Fold each of these.
Amino acid sequence: MGLPTAAQGEITYLSFLLGLLDVEKQERKRRSEEIRMKFSRLLHRKTLEDFDFSFQPSIDIRQIKELSTLVFVVRRENVILLGPSGVGKTHLADGLSMQAIRTGLTVY
């Protein structure tokens, strides 16, 4: 009861090759993301999905969702997060950085 193989005639050679190429593509993406994470030197791996917006109701969720599209990167704009200690600025910055890394961008 092993995996189906092209040599045994269980799947076509083309299907086998396409599956193999898909596995290779996924592995390259994973390794590339891992390398970009190392280069980023982020202290925390927090995501925007993990941010508790109910904890800080003054944050505009729509604005954060807009920032998560990373359009500001394409437009070469800066994002400045202002506020007192403990409101989630670092979490949001890390979340935007993680989003950028997931989409293939390099973060420093």
Amino acid sequence: MQVATSSRPVACRQEPDLNFAPRFRPFYEAELSGYQAQLDKLVLPGDFQPLTLQPRLHLQACRLRAGGLAVNLESTPIAVRHRPEHAADALQAEFLASFILEGHGIISQNGASLPVETGDIIFRTTALPSEVRMLTDSRLVVIKGSLLNLLGMHLQDISQFTAQRAASALPMVRTAHSCLAHVFFEEANAVSPTSSMFAEQALISLLAAIYTSQALEQLPSAERGPIESWQAITSYLDTHIADSDLSVAAVARALRASNRWIHRLFQMRGIQYGQYVRERRLELARTALEDPTKGHLPVKEIAASCGFQDASHFSRCFQQRFGSPPNKYRAGIHMAS
């Protein structure tokens, strides 16, 4: 059977217009090639190969309120290979957390070949080549979002990202599956936008806890200390990212640590403290500007809620990072919607 090859440049990919969770948008494509084109946009370009003579595919997707996508995919046996030229830029790396609701197969990335069973969660990144082979009729929900949002910046060297399999027997994995069902598959009328947003945040936090616990277990005990310290500080920063005073001294006092300890943790990863804080605040602001429920808020109010006290400074930083001023960026998003 012929393998179809996607040649779209990754930088030019445009995601389809989608509903916000929990309302999936279904895609009705007459041919398998149409589904491949949608998967290229939604997940990552790849070489798509059906593994059965009568392939079928059912695809739905929605946006997450905190940024990212969820893709609900049902299919007969398929293989998808993401080659190096398909990979996203490391600075825009995203994670792919695949909830295996039904089926089994193999997912490979960065030297790891992971068996996949019903109930598992598999973690990959869009910045490295990978391959998915689902050997039976399968149903997956793939959560895609910023790797920065999931793990902070302690994986600055993306080549060190390790694909992980979180087995269905683990209690946190079962909890994550329950949370997934609550966010996407319960009666939509019973979930308000606010509760949906917090449920999504809980799901992402669970995924971060599952991934990091899996990754830490594979490290020698001597290496775990600095990583756990890094996770402690990035967790604090992410929780307090909107605080007006997020100086090194203020964070050190809150964590009962020294300024030197904080600077050392960032230096070990080749990151400046201010760079990390600014990037997290800009990502938070971008998410707020994309949220239609916050369309009535002035940009300066959004800037302040994300920790920027000077609206002009925020506008300059935002334009430098995302290519357009915040007002123009929001107008473009809403026009597209």
Amino acid sequence: MSHLGTKLDAGAWVVVCDGRKALLLANIGDELYPNLRTFEVHEQENPPTSQQGSDAPGRVHESATAARSAVETTDWHDQAERAFLRRIVARLDKALQAGETHALIIVAPPRALGVIRPLYTHAISRALAAEVDRDLVRLPVYEIEKMLAA
């Protein structure tokens, strides 16, 4: 489902996101002349893990020997991105259940798509018109519109 030149139905939502920012755009035009308008922006502060963790990695004492080994630190940055994307998917599911839209196009880098795909609900899977594996979240809306319609 990953391609540009995506059909943009009237009323379809285009969700452009990564792990830190999501733009919810609605096509207020029609299929021939799409006109994307931003109606929601979700953003989260997500400093690097080094600024989020407070302690040095833990140590584990092996019961069978006197050896000790380090425990891997928690990647707070990655966890925050995953939680953010879960919230976006929940927002989309709620919108579909409420009849706010009937079609979705999701535009995200491959890593973000890998996180959100397993979270798709039945409603999202049914409404999903396309996935575009590109990182466009920092582009102006008119550029996103041009790239999708190309």
